[in-house]
Specification:
Shape of chain A: globular
Structural class of chain A: alpha+beta
Structural class of chain B: mainly alpha
Distance between the termini of chain A: 26 Å
Oligomer: heterodimer
Radius of gyration of chain B: 26 Å
Strand content of chain A: 15-25%
Number of helices of chain A: 4
Helix content of chain B: 55-70%
Largest sheet of chain A: 3 strands, antiparallel
Order of helices and strands of chain A: HEHEHEEH
Strand content of chain B: 5-15%
Helix content of chain A: 55-70%
Number of strands of chain B: 4
Radius of gyration of chain A: 18 Å
Strand order of the largest sheet of chain A: 1-4-3
Number of strands of chain A: 4
């Protein structure tokens, strides 16, 4: 494998990793209160380094709502058009906690596994 | 900052096309999706008029954007209704979005086709008792097995394998295949349906 191919492969893996964490990231973003779609996109980018395009976020929010994890309502904004706000339902909060616990456990075990790599770099 | 007339026209054109692509959804859902995207585009246009084109590109074409909702809707309804037709319809849409969807569609088509073939053979046996059935055909040193519906004549040297047993066995195999294909389809939806997502890493500013 050439170094370009290796770099491409590593990038693809990273993209898959980010895709896998997207649902948890969205639930976590809504943990402290309601947000509308654009706010969620900006919060994700600012707090988690995740860039999520509009074509992805809105269908995903609709799906999470259909699963009963989110609820939504329209709020008139000062800018003259209403905005659709999302917030976690009780089921959504439970799911966020479950996913967060699974994530913490998994990342702790991966960190243990990866510790020698960190020493090797030094 | 107010939204320019040009941006508004661009937004309206996009949303009109999106609404047309969402016609298979129920009216309330389609309207809500369009209004949410309108709200998003107006917010982006207000902050930066040049962002409308960029944002519309990030949404994808109206067909692409709508297909994500339609696939979700179809697959959810297929799971609930348990209708094989709805499931196949949803697999057609899934196949346009991913390779996994394509293979699942192919597997389902083959499964239902074979089930149909066996059941037709069983049903046509009483009508074509001499020619319908499961046949072993000899072609020199090679042999092949052929499920025949009874139309046309049997090549010389052919031998029927099951006789009238093709009727009950054919119906049992057809039912089994149809059920297996259906259950595999449901299992595939539960385990493999993932919305195609575009997720990137922030480098500088927002890049899709």
């Amino acid at each position: 494998m050439t170094s370009n191919q290796a770099h491409e492969s590593a990038e693809k893996w990273e993209v898959q990793l980010r895709k896998g964490s997207l649902e948890l990231a969205i639930l976590a973003t809504l943990w402290n209160g309601r947000l509308y779609g654009l706010e969620i996109i900006r919060r994700l980018e600012k707090d988690s380094d995740l860039i999520v395009v509009e074509g992805t976020i809105y269908p995903l929010l609709t799906r999470l709502k259909s699963l009963g994890l989110l609820e939504s309502h329209w709020v008139e904004s000062g800018s003259g058009h209403p905005r659709k706000y999302y917030q976690l339902t009780p089921a959504g909060r439970r799911r966020a906690i479950e996913m967060s616990q699974a994530w913490t456990k998994f990342s702790a075990s991966m960190n243990r596994l990866l510790a020698p790599l960190g020493k090797g770099k030094q | 900052m107010t939204v320019s007339a040009e941006s508004k026209e661009r937004i309206d054109d996009y949303l009109k096309a999106l609404r047309s692509c969402l016609r298979d959804l129920n009216d309330d859902d389609a309207r809500e999706i369009v209004e949410e995207i309108r709200s998003h585009l107006l917010d982006e246009a207000r902050d930066d008029p040049a962002a409308v084109a960029f944002t519309i590109a990030a949404l994808g074409t109206p067909e692409e954007h709508a297909s994500r909702y339609l696939a979700d809707d179809l697959l959810s309804r297929a799971q609930v209704s348990r209708s094989p037709w709805l499931m196949l319809h949803s697999f057609f849409r899934w196949a346009t979005l991913s390779f996994a969807g394509f293979w699942i569609l192919l597997f389902s088509l083959v499964g239902y086709f074979l089930a149909a073939a066996f059941s037709l053979c069983a049903l046509l046996k009483p009508i074509h008792p001499e020619t319908a059935g499961l046949w072993l055909l000899a072609d020199g040193p090679d042999h092949s097995v052929s499920l025949r519906l009874g139309f046309g004549s049997i090549p010389p040297g052919g031998r029927e394998l099951l006789g009238w047993w093709i009727v009950p066995l054919g119906l049992v195999v057809a039912t089994g295949l149809a059920l297996l294909t259906f259950r595999s389809g449901l299992w595939s939806i539960r385990n493999f349906w993932q919305r195609p997502a575009q997720v990137g890493r922030s480098i500088s500013g927002r890049t899709p």
